[in-house]
Give the backbone structure.
Amino acid sequence: MKIRFLGTNGWYDTKTANTVCAMVETDEYYIILDAGSGFYKTREYIKDGRPVLLFLSHLHLDHIIGLHTLPLFNIPQGIDVYMPGGMTGPLKTFLSKPYTSPLDTIATRVRLHEIDTERPPKLDCRFGPLLHSPTCYGYRLRLEGKTISYCTDTGICDELCALAKDCDLLITECSFKPGEDVSKASHLNPEAAAGIAKECGVKKLGLIHFDAGRYPSLKDRGFAENTARKIFPNTFAATDDQELKL
Ligand SMILES: [Zn+2]
Ligand SMILES: [Zn+2]
């Protein structure tokens, strides 16, 4: 399967990156992880009738702002959006007038599901609440014999390790800089992300959600990557439009 990082910033766009969005393409599915400003790029990769599943971690705008580009899409099979319980009401408000074109006026049918009560049929998927200011879910997906854990935004918590346990790829956040205290934070720094990867038996660690203010350049991300590699060598700092085979 292919994993494409389409947005790797947290908070806001910079010259370096859009805000968070990743896409996993398998033989069976197009799976999109969050819909930050990089979301518009998924359009060029959705080429056939495979189901399109979008998993939203939470509704902070850097994770959903890309949804205002939905009117550009024309996906005959529609998109199934999965999110934490209680979030469909607020999301519907966001996806309506006067903010954007209402869902019932656009070409692509968008079906909203709260994952607690409506899980994706036939997909091996676990989820759980991370440590963040609003309700925020991490996801663990079993695809083509591999396990991908997608956990952002989060501080250090037990659920993060439970979702990441022995996975093939952990995609998690790196909002803070090396050396910053994250013991009480609802975000991670590279040492914390690498520590989780090591402790929880992860095989590969991909860092995303680099805080736009703290990481103005790719050089800053390189510093984070090097710091993390001292703790967990198989780490990479993801960049926009990076593609990975798993
Ligand atoms: Zn965020
Ligand atoms: Zn957030």
Summary: The longest strand covers residues 137-143. The chain has a mean pLDDT of 97. The two ends are 6 Å apart (CA to CA). The domain at 2-240 is CATH 3.60.15.10 (Metallo-beta-lactamase; Chain A).
